[in-house]
Structures are given as structure tokens and as C-alpha cells.
Amino acid sequence: MRFVRAGAVLTGANIAVVAGAGGLLLTGGLAAFVLARRRRTSFSA
């Protein structure tokens, strides 16, 4: 008998990719927010 892959294995891989991309976007957004906040305060001082 042949071993047939379950659909959950492929779904789990896709979820990992989407979660990784979401984490990168979140990190990038947080970095942009912090940089924008620093620039604003440096000009007002």
C-alpha cells in the first residue's frame, strides 16, 4: 500500500508560512512606528 499524505500536513506548512509572514509584517510595522515617533519628537525638541 502506498502512503498518502494527509491534507493537514500541507495545511500546517501553509499556516507556518502565513504566520512567519505576519510576524515579519508586524515587526516591520513596529519598527516603522518607533522610527516615525523618534523623528517627530526630535523635530519638536
Briefly, what is this?
By secondary structure, the chain is mainly alpha-helical. It contains 1 helix and no strands.
Q: Could you please describe the fold and organization of this structure?
A:
With 45 residues, this protein is mainly alpha-helical. It is 84% helix and 0% strand. It has one helix spanning 7-44. The longest helix is centred in the middle third of the chain and has 38 residues, at 7-44. It is rod-shaped.
Average predicted local confidence, pLDDT: 77
Please count the beta strands (DSSP E, at least 2 residues each).
0
Q: Distance between termini?
A: 74 Å
Helix vs. strand class:
mainly alpha
Instruction: Please give the count of helices.
Output: 1
Beta-strand content estimate: under 5%
Sequence stretches where pLDDT stays below 50 over 5 or more residues? none
Main sheet properties: none
Radius of gyration: 20 Å
> What level of helicity do the residues show?
over 70%
Overall morphology: rod-shaped
| Element string (H = helix, E = strand) | H
Keywords:
84% helix; 45 residues; mainly alpha
Write the layout of secondary structure elements.
Blueprint lengths: L6 H38 L1
